[in-house]
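Assemble and predict.
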Amino acid sequence: MTGKTCESVPTATPRFSQRRWFAADQAISFLMRQAVENRNVISLAAGLVDQETLPVDATRAAFERLFADPERARAALQYGTTAGAERLRVQVAQHLARLEGCSVAELHIDPDQILLTTGSQQTLALIADLLLDPGDICLVAAPTYFVFLGTLSGVGARAVPVPADEDGMRVDALEEELARLERAGELARVKLIYVVSYYENPTGVSLAAERRGELVDIARRWSKENRIFILEDTAYRELRYDGPDLPSVWRCDGSQETVILTHTFSKSFSPGLRVGFTVVPRELVRPLCDLKGNEDFGSANLNQHLLATILEEGLHEPHVQKLRRSYRLKRDAMLAAAEKHFGSLQEVSWYRPHGGLYVWMSLPPEIDTGFDGPLFQRATEEGVMYVPGELCFPAGDCEPERNHLRLSFGVQSVEGIAVGMARLARAVQAVLAR
Amino acid sequence: MTGKTCESVPTATPRFSQRRWFAADQAISFLMRQAVENRNVISLAAGLVDQETLPVDATRAAFERLFADPERARAALQYGTTAGAERLRVQVAQHLARLEGCSVAELHIDPDQILLTTGSQQTLALIADLLLDPGDICLVAAPTYFVFLGTLSGVGARAVPVPADEDGMRVDALEEELARLERAGELARVKLIYVVSYYENPTGVSLAAERRGELVDIARRWSKENRIFILEDTAYRELRYDGPDLPSVWRCDGSQETVILTHTFSKSFSPGLRVGFTVVPRELVRPLCDLKGNEDFGSANLNQHLLATILEEGLHEPHVQKLRRSYRLKRDAMLAAAEKHFGSLQEVSWYRPHGGLYVWMSLPPEIDTGFDGPLFQRATEEGVMYVPGELCFPAGDCEPERNHLRLSFGVQSVEGIAVGMARLARAVQAVLAR
């Protein structure tokens, strides 16, 4: 050991920033520990993508192609820019145009409006950072993506719930909530509406076509004291198995002043690449780059070049098609198992998702599905794990609903899903029988 | 265009968070624009690594090795964890032990204390976020790494300068500054001391051996009101060309309560992989993971697996040796050119760095090297660019020194350095002659 230090002097305890205390433990950590400690358990909780379908061959092909040109390889191994590699931003614009069913020109965006991030989570965190001071308000569907609830808490913001149904966030209820907030003198605190517009995590529902334009209208009309932005999270968009192919909420925002679109290649290709992108109103480009510059001055450049090559070489779309076939079978397996085991149970219901990775199941109101409730314990004994629905409701004035489960069909095989659902049914029946 | 929205309704202007206003434009953006707009200019400004030495072959070899095993490839393409891939953390511990000249056991760390980040910049930003509320104080050498000054501003913290000499931050001056802050009733605001301990950006100086233990002692002794941490940035550590091979400040902290070590593979291998790591006191593991969980819930997993393979296969060390040879020649070329063109000039001096990528040059006090001063303009006309030294001094009570230049020998060839330095000399002589 080098250097002698005065270790006899006691050192004071650390004093953390306010931010540290905002950043509560994400419930996901508990679930991950549970999964590690109970390896024989079938997890219908994990939101990972299917390990077996990860694109080993496509990634290898793209890597070989990229590294066949030493100049291009070196460019990928060098620092990139804060906003991200130009090559990929060009591809992203084309990709987005394909998804929207229009030409790149019809998107009416500058390449500068596209920012590349470390997954779409970084966009969610940057937007929260950019717009929300402690006490500010983001309106969310109830239930919604629970990781984003943690992100909102992490900047000290308030998530205010808006009731949702099988067509997504209820726009009439959104308007009522805005009116209530205005009466309470809090409209100036409302900065953001968060919406997972395709196959929402956790419910699997999509925002209905007619609600999309209305949502933009409402945000504009209620931007009385300051701009209310919509953060549209389209993470699951490409995992569509049936049902309508909807344009985004962003596409309904003709003036491009209101909607921030975020998307990721984590679900449609590989989460290990950790590449997401966002398309933002022009006024947000510079502020977001300033924030991201401080955070990391650019996400991994190699991954951006790799993904640019994947898109250029047409390696992405065939993979998505393969994923759709594979996940569709799994979704059908889960729905069939739900019908088989729960179809005859009173007061048990679930949505039939057209895409995504989740089935949202509701039990009789008296059944508490939480970590400390009887069902989670019993399910663990039976060897199956799920995400308690209460995590997906914002903490706050109203009590979260405690009788739901988020079931994922992403990770398990068709057989695993069948076994897991049977185990879950035994646990539910045991608890119902008490 | 789908959806009709009420675009006739005017929308209010955005109201950003306090954070947005803290995040000022980084000066680096201006430099990058200048570089793009003046492509015939020889940049002695850019802090990039040498494009020609980027490890194309080593990266390809590691990729092929990793992807030869489909299980491992799939693991790399899946989500990772917030703290980072276990495989790489094991390798990082061994790498750190090699750098410190001891065994892994002698490091006395748990693998949990190692966190993998998106470059070391993410660590700098996370630590600022974790410890510093608006108005809190971080002590820094003057001059210091200018990007970190932006990061401190980004959380509303104050950077308080401590004079430095050719042995790095002056520990006597540090102690005086702490005493002054205590008298001013501000000791409780001091949370952090930032030190670039090897070949500091911008000066190229290293913290002298005897100052390393003293620095830890001072931080402990002045941790009266709350813990004062040391953030030790070792980004350039492996780029050593001659001079002593010093243990880290972290290694002088026997109780591991004070020093946060950060390192990156950006300088020693490839910035495009964007993999950095930090070793933190045990009490900081959980708070940092909570913050990072909100920010991105993990940096790119593929890159971590790739780098783990690079280290396992012994591909890293030969590359570093090659870099050392290459950069040493460039440093010598820059120092020779400095001697040739500036040796006879009164009041022009520079440090002779033992490593890193920079030479710090001081001109007569009356010469303003800033973007708006006469030299920068004249240098641009001559076709050479540098980083004005004033950027590396914290804004605050005292005036920054305006007569220094940061010159980088990283990007240019030996020939480019010679030409660039000759151009710079013409610009300096022209301004001196006025």
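The mean pLDDT of chain A is 93.
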